[in-house]
Write a structure and sequence with these properties.
About 5% of the residues lie in helices and about 50% in strands. The protein is mostly beta strands. The termini are far apart. A hairpin with a 2-residue loop joins strand 17 and strand 18.
């Protein structure tokens, strides 16, 4: 789908006149005083457009014959000087895929003057350049040959799409998949009384390119008129027209309009504009405020010009400036497309946000209308792996609209879910059963995975759990083995990074007792319940407060400890635990011991 404006046609016409005049010597090279900076107008690519990896041609709107050479700057760095008659271009690395690149052009006059373009911010896609010049040749009544121009250098395959009959339905899958660098295809076994339609696209890991032009086996133009013509007022001097293109091989579309008087009578119909094939949206500007208009669109076919329904509209009473500086970027933290724009009026009822898929024939669809004065919106309803095009406009209290803002694109990457955090482990049954808990931070996981390892085995998948699960009870473990666990979220084939790691506990000692001798000393004893401890740790503090301090360590299998650094008339708290290089056990309950004041 192409979006056109009348002023675009006029500018191209003026550009053609200027180019011819210069070619025949009717336009003198305009000198530019030193210190004055003139403006270079870029036609393509401009902010909001998409470029490809590799070489990207730059098209100027009105080349100035007085400029002797051009210099192109990408991300503030010069990438080369070009004589005025050469093709301007810049090259994009594959490492820029999914990001936006800023570039501008300097023009240098022979007399030392300077011209400069505005900075343009373009999106870099990794998808292939689309094929062009698709043509069809009839080999015989049952076979056809397709040929096209292979413009891509990074495709992995080509797809041929075919529609049988006049219902123009290509279905959801390609008809044939061809090898990379293909530029032709032979289709056999056709019914000579059936019309076949074809289109081609290039494919790689980033997705499909735009489709080529469409061709048909019968060579006939579609006979269906445009339908569903709608007209919306954009401010007080412009109208947005949208329609459905039902013809297959039209040469373009003709838009006619007329005034409607106070009695509802139509005036003389005049041509408003002519647009290229496949156009389904147009902005007609330069209209009168508070005026009723009628519009009709005609498909320019080879033998006739079928027309659409008639759409009427009344332009607004006052001018409302459009939103400006729309910027669309994918926010990794929010997992959403972040839209920001400048609010240029206090008269809006809200801001309507529209979106379509880049490279598709879809028309823009309305996502939502924000509150007045809002300049930030997060689009969370998307399909990953697609590039979306956005534009915004104001809605007035009377139901009219402002002109649209600039358009901007955002690529939604294929992202794994956000990883779970705060994985914790709680002992349920000493050595054999534990409860794992974690925080689910993702909204798009299809399931969770628990991975397990031991000192002698690598991590391996242990359990798969349903989405939104935040705990799992592990049972049937060997009490003499230390197990390690970590968790991750998974969305089909995309997995998050792992959570923190936790490990099972050694079996804690029990039957913790203490006795006081006359020395005085405190003799601590316990039962050793584990067979894999490396040592036991003894901790002590003054009863009633303070931090526990480790006062001793004994070898494995030892079940007693004597503390001879105690004072008479003092109370102490004790606790112990088993430990090893891999893990520790829970502490025993705290045991309080009172040292007598006298022997």
């Amino acid at each position: 789908m192409k979006i056109m404006k009348i002023n675009t046609k006029i500018s191209l016409f003026i550009f053609a006149l200027i180019s011819l005049s210069y070619f025949y010597g009717c336009v003198d090279a305009e000198s530019t005083p030193p210190g004055e900076v003139k403006k270079i107008n870029i036609s393509y690519p401009v902010t909001g457009d998409t470029v490809y990896t590799g070489k990207n041609i730059i098209i100027l709107n009105t080349p100035d014959p007085g400029i002797g050479q051009y210099e192109i700057f990408v991300e503030g760095q010069s990438v080369g000087l070009f004589p005025k008659d050469s093709t301007l271009y810049f090259t994009v690395s594959q490492y820029a895929i999914g990001s936006k690149v800023e570039y501008y052009i300097n023009g240098y006059y022979d007399n030392g003057g300077l011209a400069q373009s505005e900075k343009q911010k373009v999106y870099v896609t990794g998808s292939p350049r689309p094929p062009t010049n698709l043509s069809l040749s009839t080999f015989n009544e049952h076979e056809i040959l397709l040929f096209w121009s292979d413009n891509a250098d990074n495709e992995t395959s080509y797809e041929v799409w075919r529609s049988v009959g006049n219902n123009h339905s290509y279905g959801g899958e390609p008809y044939r998949v061809l090898l990379e660098n293909s530029n032709n295809f032979r289709d056999a076994g056709l019914d000579q009384y059936t019309a076949y339609y074809y289109k081609v696209c290039a494919v790689n890991g980033y997705g499909r390119s735009k489709f080529s032009n469409e061709v048909s086996s019968n060579g006939e133009s579609g006979r269906d008129a445009p339908t569903n013509l709608k007209a919306e007022a954009l401010g007080n001097s412009a109208v947005l027209l949208t329609w459905k293109d039902n013809s297959l091989t039209e040469n373009g579309f003709l838009v006619k309009m007329t005034l409607i008087d106070a009695n509802g009578n139509y005036g003389e119909w005049v041509t408003a504009a002519v647009y290229p094939p496949n156009t389904e949206e147009a902005i007609i500007d330069g209209l009168l405020p508070s005026t009723a208009y009628a519009f009709q669109v005609f498909a320019l076919l080879q033998n006739n010009q079928p027309g659409s329904n008639i759409a009427t509209v009344v332009t607004g009473t006052s001018y409302i400036p459009a939103p400006s500086n729309l910027v669309a970027d994918f926010d990794m933290d929010e997992r959403a497309v972040k839209l920001t724009w400048n609010d240029n009026t206090t008269l809006e009822y809200g801001t309507e946000i529209q979106r379509k898929i880049y490279g598709s024939d879809d028309v823009f669809e309305s996502l939502t209308t924000t509150e007045p004065d809002q300049t930030l919106y997060y689009d969370r309803n998307y399909l990953p792996g697609l590039t979306y095009v956005y534009r915004v406009r104001y809605v007035t209290a009377s139901g009219t609209y402002s002109m649209f803002s600039n358009q901007d694109t955002a690529y939604v990457p294929l992202l794994p879910p956000k990883p779970p955090t705060n994985l914790d482990i709680e002992e349920l049954n000493p050595g054999t059963a534990f409860l794992l808990t974690w925080e689910d931070n993702s909204q798009d996981e299809t399931h969770f995975e628990i991975w397990r390892a031991t000192k002698t085995t690598d991590y391996a998948l242990y359990r798969s759990l349903d989405a939104n699960t935040t705990n799992y009870t592990v049972t049937g473990l060997n009490r003499d083995t230390v197990y390690y666990f970590k968790v991750r979220a998974v969305n089909n084939t995309l997995a998050s990074s792992f959570s923190n790691e936790v490990r099972t506990l050694l079996v804690a000692p029990t039957n913790f007792t203490a006795s006081v001798t006359s020395t005085p000393t405190v003799v601590l004893t316990w039962t050793d319940n584990s067979s894999n401890e490396g040592w036991f740790e003894i901790y002590r503090r003054y009863t009633g407060g303070g931090e526990f301090e480790r006062i001793g360590v004994v070898a494995p299998n030892v079940t007693s400890y004597t503390d001879d650094e105690v004072n008479r008339g003092t109370a102490y708290d004790y606790k112990i635990r088993a430990a090893s290089e891999e893990s520790v056990s829970n502490f025993t309950d705290i045991l309080t011991v009172q040292i007598p004041s006298k022997k």
